[in-house]
Design brief:
single chain, about 230 residues, alpha/beta, Rossmann fold, 5-stranded parallel sheet, 9 helices, binds ligand Z5A
Length: about 230
């Protein structure tokens, strides 16, 4: 593992792809198996990053341009990495993160038209060596993901955020960009069909994750008793 004893697993995909649903399911399974698990998200996941989340998702930063937004996502990520992710991995925790660098590559890089060099340089400095052991890209047609997200949105009070409000064609372009990423980094990125039932998707997720997970650490007492 590139960053200590733990395992770093990220989930990516468009709106309503099922990331939160699958992260929670995977966390339950891994905890039952004896792993220490941390569920976190971006933008957010640390005190500093959560403070920036509202600025980004409310659209307050949009008028200042995509460079500004990308830099704010990066600032939030830096705090999240150094305050939460790196220490958790060093303690042997399995970290499950809802979105990470690939979201910046796709949302700000591809559909935001930000120069690839700028995106790459920002990423390198901010992650500072902490890259996912595996990235699960949940693949769902944009229209179905948006329908799911809207259905869920009508039952919570928040309403659509700055990104959810964009055109279907933009969401479809992101779907393709995530698929391209899976092709260009096949070792790290696994494309998972997200259109099946939550149970079917969970099985595919577990199958992919099993290839990178270390054995859970057995507590000392029970190890002696064996
Ligand atoms: N962003 C960015 O631009 N740059 C960056 O670097 C980063 C992020 C890190 C964060 O939004 C926004 O920030 C995001 C990109 C941008 N754009 N937007 N919008 P967020 O954190 O508020 O939300 P999200 O990441 O987009 O996730 P989501 O919309 O909440 O969707 P999800 O987590 O993938 O899906 P879900 O909540 O698990 O499921 C959605 C609904 O579908 C729910 O009612 C489920 O019960 C249902 N569901 C789930 N799975 C299934 C299946 N298999 N079948 C049927 N129904 C299902």
């Amino acid at each position: 593992m590139s960053q200590g004893k733990g395992c770093f697993i990220t989930f990516e995909g468009g709106e309503g792809a099922g990331k939160s649903t699958q992260i929670n399911r995977l966390a339950d399974v891994l905890r039952r198996r004896g792993h220490d698990v941390l569920v976190t998200r971006e933008p957010g996941g640390s005190q500093g990053a959560e403070a920036v989340r509202h600025i980004l998702l409310s659209g307050q930063a949009e008028e200042f341009g995509v460079r500004m937004e990308a830099t704010l996502f990066a600032a939030a990520r830096s705090d999240h990495v150094e305050q939460v992710i790196r220490p958790a991995l060093a303690e042997g925790t399995v970290v499950l993160c809802d979105r990470y660098v690939d979201s910046t590559r796709v949302y700000q890089g591809v559909t935001g038209n930000l120069e690839p060099g700028f995106v790459r340089n920002l990423e390198r400095v901010v992650v500072n060596g902490v890259m996912p052991d595996i990235t699960l890209i949940l693949d769902v047609p944009a229209e179905s993901g948006l329908t799911r997200a809207r259905k869920r949105g009508s039952s919570d009070s928040a309403g659509p955020d700055r990104f959810e409000k964009e055109e279907v064609a933009t969401h479809e372009m992101r779907r393709q960009a995530f698929r391209d990423l899976a092709q260009s980094e096949p070792k790290r990125c696994k494309l998972i069909d997200g259109t099946g039932s939550p149970d079917a998707v969970a099985l595919a997720v577990l199958d992919a994750v099993d290839s990178v997970l270390p054995e859970p650490v057995v507590p000392e007492k029970s190890a002696k008793g064996r």
